Amino acid sequence: MPTFLEQLNKAYFWDIDPYHLDEIKSKRLIIERIMNYGNLHEIRLIKKYYGEKEIKKTICNLNYIDPKTLNFCSLLFNIPKTKFKCYTRKQLTNQHWSY
């Protein structure tokens, strides 16, 4: 049976050697990439491996999540957007090109 990491798509880790990933040391990167690019099966895998509490804590402390993923995570885990670091940082940043 394939290990936890072997079940994840290697394309999500394009910038590093996926065979040198460590489930514990690379936890933040793994959670970030799966939440941004993964499918529902892979999201279930990380929920089973890391636990929902750890995933919530990790995603809420990420510096950046794309807007679609932020909405998805907010709904999936029932977390208000204001609890996400990336959301509050975006609100504090004055963007001159915004409409």
In N-to-C order, the SSE pattern is HHHHH
Shape: globular
Quaternary: single chain
Distance between the termini: 51 Å
Per DSSP, what share of the residues sits in E-state strands of 2 or more residues? Answer: under 5%
Q: What's the structural domain tally?
A: 1
**Low-confidence regions:** none
The assigned structural class equals mainly alpha
The largest sheet is:
none
Question: How many distinct helices?
Answer: 5
Radius of gyration, CA atoms, in whole angstroms: 15 Å
Indicate the percent of residues in helices: 40-55%
Total beta strand runs:
0
User: What's the overall average pLDDT, rounded?
Assistant: 89
Give the arrangement of secondary structure elements.
Elements lengths: L26 H11 L2 H11 L1 H9 L6 H10 L8 H8 L7
Helix pairs in contact: 1-2, 2-3
Explain the overall architecture.
With 99 residues, the protein is an all-alpha fold. It has one domain. Helices cover 49% and strands 0% of the residues. It is built from five helices and no strands. It is globular and about 40 Å long. The model has no long low-confidence stretch (mean pLDDT 89).
Key terms:
99 residues, mainly alpha, 5 helices, single chain, 0% strand, globular
Short description:
By secondary structure, this protein is mostly helical. The protein contains 5 helices and no strands.
